[in-house]
Model the fold of this input.
Amino acid sequence: MRREPSTGSCRLLDAVPPPESLAPASESFLDWLSIERGRSPRTIASYRSDLRAFEAFLVERGMSFERTTPREIDAYLAHLKAIGLAPSSIARSRSAIKSLYAFLLEEGNLGDDPTRLAGSITVPSRLPKAISEDAVTRLLDGISGDDPLSLRDRAALELLYGTGARASEVVGLDLGDLAYDEGLLRVVGKGDKERLVPIGRAAQRALGEWLGPLGRPRLLGASPRKLTSAVFVNTRGGRLSRQGLHLLVSTRASRAGLREHVSPHVLRHSCATHMLAHGADVRVVQELLGHASVATTQIYTKVSSEHLAEAYALAHPRALDARGGTR
Done:
C-alpha cells in the first residue's frame, strides 16, 4: 500500500542531510523499500551505497534532486565508467537511481523523471561458471573423515550442489526447516520468499550424519552456546556465516586438487547446468533455484548447449572435418 504524501513533502528534496547520511528523500525511499516492499537488508545496503555516491556527485556540482536532468544522470554514469566500475555495478547504480526517482514522482515530489531519457547500460552477457560432474564427485568424495568438521562440510557441500541453494539460504537454515519424512527442505530466498526444495538421498544421508551424535552435538559440546537452532554451526557454536561457508568450500576444493575456482555460487550453477544437461525441464530448475523469472534460468540452457556442442566436437569422428572426411 502506498503512503499518502505528507504536507510539505517537497521539502524532502531541499533538505541537507547530516554527514554520512542520505538526504531525507532517499531515506524515505529506502524506508518504503524495506517496510512496504519487504526488500532484504542486503538489498537496502546496496541501494544506500549507490545513492550515497550519487548524492555526493550532485553535491559536488551544486545540483539537487529536483533540478537533475538526463544530462546529469548520463554524466554520473560516465563518471562511474571512468573510475573503473564494472558494467554490472553501473547498471545496478542506475537501477537504484531510477527506482528513487520513480518513487519521488509517485509521491508527488517531482513533476518529471530525469532517468526516463537517460542512457541505458549494456551489461555483457556472462555465462554462469560450472565445474564438471567429475570435479563435483572429486570434491565430495574428498571428504572422508568422520570428525565433526568433516561431517559438517560434507553435509554443506551436498546441500549446495544437491539443491542449488544460495549460500545465504544454507547458512540461514534452522533445524525446523528440515522435513526428512517428506524429503523436503524449507529455504528462505531473496525478498524473504520461502520455498520447498527436495533433498536427494546423498544430501539426506550427509545431513543425518552431521546431525547425529558424532557431528553437530559433539561440536556444540565444546561450546557454551548450545541453544542455537542453526543447522550449520562454527567451531565456537554460533551460526556458520556466509564467509565461513565460502572459506569451507574453497578449502575443500583446494584439498581435492581442483584447479577451478569453486564457491557456493559455482556449486549452485553446477547444479542447474548438470540438471538441464540430463534433461530436466527449465521450469523445474527455475522452481528449484527460486528464480523469479524463467529468463534467468534459461541462461543455463545456453551453457548446456555449449557443453553438448563441445562434447560432440570431441567425440564424433567426423565432427571436425569440414570436407566430410575423417579426422
Remarks:
- Residues 294-315 form the longest helix (22 residues).
- Residues 1-19, 322-327 have pLDDT under 50 and may be disordered.
- The chain has two domains: 11-106, 133-315.
